[in-house]
Amino acid sequence: MTPTVFFLGFLFLSNFHLTHVQSDEQGFISIDLFQKGIDFGKDLIIKKGVSSLTPLELPQIEKAVKIKLIGTVHLTLSDINLYKVDVSSSTVQPGENGLVLIVSGAKASLSMNWGYKYGTLIVISDKGTASVQVESMDISLTLNGKNQEGNLNLSLTDCGCKVNNISIKLDGGASWLYQIFVEAFEKKIRSAIEVAITKQIQNIITDLNPLLQTIPKEIRVDKISSINVTFVNDPVLDGSSIGVAINGLLSAINRTTGFDHRIQNIQSLSSCGRRPAKMGGISIHQNVLNSASAVYFNAGVMHLVLDKLPEQYLLNTAEWKYIIPQLYKKYPNADMILNISISSPPILSVSHQSIDATIYADITVGILDAGERVPVACISSLSTISCYPDISRDNITGSIKLNDFNMFLNWSNIGVLHMDLLQPFTETLLRTVAVPYLNLIFYWGLPLPTFKGYTLSNAKFSYVGSSVLICTNVHQVKKRKYYPVADQ
Predict the structure, then answer these.
(1) Model confidence over 261-288: pLDDT tens digits?
(2) Better pLDDT: 198 or 452
(3) Which residue, 116, 114, 133, 134, is CA-closest to 125?
């Protein structure tokens, strides 16, 4: 995929909007691109577009002119090459008919060969080189996008190029020849440039659509899950933003998700475009989070074996002899192992200031007895936590807070456990050891995924209805050692 082909699709492919979903299938992830983001994308498109326009070869131009005392002179311009385009002013605006991009006052440089001949019995000819400077050129195009069976189809509904002022310089030849060439070829050169640039833009869009159809409807997240990126509606352009909705649910690799909830209250991202304006806004419905929860639970990865801790003394029966005396009596100063397994998919919901999770877990307490792991009791727990995600230094960071914790005995091989003593002691350990330790990890965070070298920056989280709203800018990422998931 050429750079220009990619970036002409950039404005549509990276903007998902939920406020106008009219498909039978629901969209659970949305991104709106606002004027600041549209301008950012426009600058990328122009930068990459110029590189695809140059070099551009124009067809040969010929003309015969009659000159007094000489007769008919056959003039030729060949090897015409547009090798440079400079753009200093441009605008882009979403409208009812599509995305309108206008370039004004662009400059361009061309090189070519000239030649002439005249005479019948005695043929006189000459040749040389010439250069043309386009002092002012305007280009406009209107792009429209449609949802075609879950993929995006782009169409160029309008495209035009107008060359306003040019200057021609001939190297070699007689002085009288210059004026003849200018009069003979100025209009033809203008027309040739206009036709060639318009045709090249049309070719880019024609080449882009087959590539858009090859975009998979599922993108692999890791070895366990993939995300459904099927488009569920046409792109929406309302004069100040542009967007489209995707399904967004996660499923196991090569399997269709069984998660089938519907959105009742779709959230608007318009607040992200207010001052201080952001480039865009991302809305993630809680159903996306719950689909991920179900996938990873069913994959059997939601378990943890604790046999080492920073405070290793906590995993010794001596530390628990006053809470579970029969454990210490039967296994004095023995090392302990905690096998923690999530017993059902965590239930995630979006509240007015956080992402809340309800987690059911089974904790099997084991003892190392003569090198052998011996299970002695199983305790079930119900925890509710609040998560506060953030983005910092190109990393996704955050913190968690334990809201409530309850536990009850499943079974025991060491007699009855006093849960009224065990629960507060365990909860204290969670609040003073486990949660701070996890928050330290979350403080450093994980690298954000990148897309073609770009990622989110200066993002702000908010919570509306059942969705997490992320108002964000985008910036280019320097090379780093982390593996960029979205660049697969």
Answers:
(1) 444 444 556 556 565 678 888 899 999 9
(2) 198
(3) 116
Computed over every residue of the chain, the mean pLDDT equals 83
Write out the DSSP string of 459-484. EEEEEETTEEEEEEEEEEPPP-SS--
Query: CA quadruple 170, 172, 176, 177: dihedral positive or negative?
Result: negative
Q: What is the pLDDT of residue 215?
A: 78
On the question of pLDDT at 448 being above 50, the answer is yes
Q: What is the pTM of this model?
A: 0.76
Of 149-163, 247-261, 271-285, the one with minimum mean pLDDT is 247-261
Domain residue extents for the chain: 37-213, 302-386+402-427
Helix 35-53 crosses helix 3-13 at what angle (to 10 degrees)? Answer: 160
Mutual orientation of helices 175-213 and 3-13 as an angle, nearest 10°? Answer: 50
Q: What is the pLDDT of residue 210?
A: 82
Distance between CA 363 and CA 402 in Å, rounded?
Answer: 17
What is the CATH code of the structural domain delimited by 37-213?
A: 3.15.10.10
Share of the chain above pLDDT 90, in %: 37
R_g over Cα of the chain = 34
SS3 328: helix
Residues in CB range of 118: below 8 A, 6 or more apart: 67, 70, 71, 72, 73, 74, 124, 125
CATH 3.15.20.10 assigned to domain 302-386+402-427? The reply is yes
Burial (0-12, 13-18, 19+ Cβ within 10 Å), 63: middle
E strand or H helix at 208, and its extent? helix 175-213
Q: How many CA atoms lie within 13 A of 281 on its CB side?
A: 28
Residue 484 banded pLDDT, cuts 50, 70, 90: very low
Cα distance between residue 153 and residue 150, in whole Å: 10
Quick one: CA dihedral 15, 18, 22, 25, positive or negative? positive
Q: Tell me the three state secondary structure of residue 38.
A: helix
Residue 312 in tokens: 């290793």
- 225-228 and 250-252: which strand pairing? antiparallel
